[in-house]
Design goal:
Elements (H helix, E strand, L loop, with lengths): L30 H6 L1 H6 L1 H12 L6 H14 L12 H8 L3 H13 L3 E4 L3 E4 L3 E4 L5 H8 L4 E12 L2 H7 L6 E11 L2 E11 L13 H7 L6 E9 L3 H6 L8 E9 L5 E10 L3 E4 L2
Parallel strand pairs: 3-10
Antiparallel strand pairs: 1-2, 4-5, 5-6, 6-9, 7-8, 8-9
Helix pairs in contact: 3-4, 4-6, 5-6
Length: 286
């Protein structure tokens, strides 16, 4: 199994100041453009229509951010699909009457967020696989939102149990201590991507029914802050139950992620085992 480590460069923040929203006129693609790029217009008619409408709206948000947002919306609703090749900068620029710099800045942002992948000779492709950082204990829901995707959860089990020796050791508890067992199916953009089991010391959860989509949102609302995590990754073929729960073909392996989340003092907050579709996840160690 190959492990790809992505190194992400950090850039200074770029701030654009605007006194009032500029009123920009957008026109239908010219006859010359349609002659030069007939295939692009035919294949991406819905995308160009969406972009034209979005960019024509009066807003203080910079154009490149609105452009990027429209692309993310198109990925989310299925207008753009995984590995689909986007038109080039020149095509977008001429069709939408915007500068190539605007298009480039939007694509730079989309690439940083993992929405697109750019390579010389192949152009810009949609990447609908979900990139998940093993270093950041933000939880799947927050990482999905930060990448322009929509998370959801279907709960299978929320129950207080007595932990066995293995779980007790992970959480720094005695065997038989009270813990919450939380089991759920995780979704990203309405697609089931993983099944997750978590064990949390009972003192951190007063009422498990108050946990919504995100356990970590529940933690943050109560000033419980995961700051570091320890992760181990392995792979195996799915059993019948996993195949049914996340609509996984028997030939597609699952990645098994065992993760321990710790607070700033090093106290264990959660131990989890996630069974993730290998065809939909890209794990990053930053």
């Amino acid at each position: 199994m190959f492990c790809h480590v992505h190194v992400i460069a950090h850039h200074k923040a770029h701030v654009e100041l605007t006194t009032r929203p500029a009123k920009i006129q957008y026109h239908s693609p010219s006859a010359a453009y349609l002659t030069e790029y007939p295939a692009a217009m035919t294949e991406h008619n819905a995308l160009f229509s969406r972009l034209t409408t979005t960019l024509a709206e009066a807003s203080r948000t910079p154009l490149y951010k609105r452009f990027a947002s429209a692309i993310k919306d198109a990925v989310r609703d299925g207008t753009l699909v995984h590995e689909e090749i986007l038109p080039g900068e020149r095509e977008f620029s001429q069709s939408l009457s915007i500068s190539r710099i605007t298009v480039r800045k939007a694509m730079d942002e989309l690439e940083r967020e993992g929405v697109v992948f750019r390579s010389r000779g192949y152009g810009t492709q949609i990447c609908s696989q979900f990139e998940y950082s093993l270093k950041e204990p933000k939880g799947l829901s927050q990482q999905a939102v930060l990448r322009g995707k929509k998370p959801d959860t279907v709960w299978i089990n929320k129950s207080k149990i007595h932990c066995n020796a293995e779980i007790g050791e992970k959480l720094g508890l005695s065997t038989g201590s009270d813990v919450w067992l939380l089991k759920r199916i995780r979704y990203v953009d309405q697609q089931a991507v993983s099944v997750e089991e978590s064990w949390v010391p009972a003192r951190y959860i007063a009422d498990a029914d108050e946990i919504g989509i995100s356990l970590y949102d529940y933690f943050r609302q109560r000033q419980i802050m995961p700051v570091t995590s320890q992760s181990r990754v392995s792979a195996r073929m799915p059993d019948e139950a996993l195949q049914q729960q996340i609509a996984l073909p028997a030939t597609v392996p699952v990645l098994v992620i065992k993760q321990l989340a710790l607070d700033v003092q090093g106290n264990p907050l959660e131990y989890s085992i996630s069974y993730c579709r290998s065809d939909m996840y890209v794990f990053i160690a930053e």
